[in-house]
Amino acid sequence: MEIQQFLQQNLVPQYINKEKASIYNSPCLETLGAYIHCNYSNEKLKVNDFAISLNMTERTLRRKCKILLNTSPSELINKYRIEVSKIMLKQNKLIGFIAIEIGFPSHSHFSTVFKKHVGMSPKEFKKCPIYESNKSKNT
């Protein structure tokens, strides 16, 4: 399954506040998800750039994210990055490489954010048997 398809099906829907989703149209959510997918690896990604690309003010974007997804735009981007990193870790890619590829300025910042979201470091996640990659099946 392609990363974008997986994340669209699993990441955004789990954060949507279904009671309030009817307030805003679903194209907003689709555009939001598409923008994050296309730009998450940009280390210099700013919430204001995100808002401008969606033709709204930063304040409106923050409000919509809070109402619909119960999170901030920057947290949504980080959650997306972490989900991508989990897939890459399962593919046995190097942690430093992953940090750069998904838009974190440093390995340590990536590790801190990963641990905050997942509850373990990327190294621990990589070694965890529950999340082990397919390499063990091939040996």
Can you offer a commentary on this structure?
The protein is mostly helical and 139 residues long. The protein folds into two domains: 3-77, no CATH class; 82-138, Orthogonal Bundle (Arc Repressor Mutant, subunit A), CATH 1.10.10. 67% of the residues lie in helices and 0% in strands. The chain has nine helices and no strands. It has helices at residues 3-15, 26-39, 47-53, 58-69, 73-90, 95-101, 107-118, 122-127, 135-138. Helix 6 (95-101) crosses helix 7. The longest helix has 18 residues, at 73-90. Residues 19-24 and 133-139 have low confidence and may be disordered.
Question: What is the topology?
Answer:
Elements: H1 3-15, H2 26-39, H3 47-53, H4 58-69, H5 73-90, H6 95-101, H7 107-118, H8 122-127, H9 135-138
Q: Which radius of gyration do the C-alpha atoms yield?
A: 16 Å
Shape: elongated
Strand content: under 5%
Q: Would you tell me the overall average pLDDT?
A: 79
Terminal CA distance reads: 23 Å
Number of domains: 2
- Helical/strand content category: mainly alpha
Unreliable runs, pLDDT <50, ≥5 residues? 19-24, 133-139
Q: Sheet with the most strands?
A: none
Element-level helix/strand string: HHHHHHHHH
Q: How many beta-strand runs? A: 0
Number of helices: 9
Helix proportion of residues, in percent? 55-70%
Overview features:
139 residues, mainly alpha, Arc Repressor Mutant, subunit A, 2 domains, elongated, disordered C terminus
Compact description:
The chain is mostly helical and 139 residues long. The chain contains nine helices and no strands. The model is unreliable at 19-24 and 133-139 (pLDDT under 50).
